[in-house]
């Protein structure tokens, strides 16, 4: 049997390795794209940037511009399961992430989408994951969800001066721990 100190050392090593892998996966791979399109003077922290070699146009969208995408707005209850087994519902209002990428001119050659928060936390998805329209709620398998960028949670808008965008996604299958994939204060979406 392993002693408590050895168990702790193993856990710390595994955590460090996982952190390193996330940081490597989210690193800047270079971008020779044209400069980002400016939409006018706005608070930098209320702008969502979509960039990378997988989009035709680097794009900066304000909260107001995203809220104005009436045909893409989604308002629904999303089921969440966290690492401790806590199950909960949250009501979100936002837009389809795939629709946002389409607005930026996502290319057929795009393969990966990296969503990065204000604090540097990031998560990476294959383009097929972003396109999916069949994420689930394990308590109601008839329910189907899209991956969204939300600006409102449980009827309350996020602070519009502090990156008011959150990535929200349903479960891939029953038992899928999906809440860890919800990224708050999304700043940049990079498509390659």
TrEMBL record:
Q: Which InterPro entries match?
A: OxRdtase_Mopterin-bd_dom (IPR000572), OxRdtase_Mopterin-bd_sf (IPR036374)
Domain Oxidoreductase molybdopterin-binding intervals = 47-171
Q: In its UniProt entry, what is this protein called?
A: Sulfite oxidase-like oxidoreductase
Annotated organism of origin = Desulfoscipio gibsoniae DSM 7213
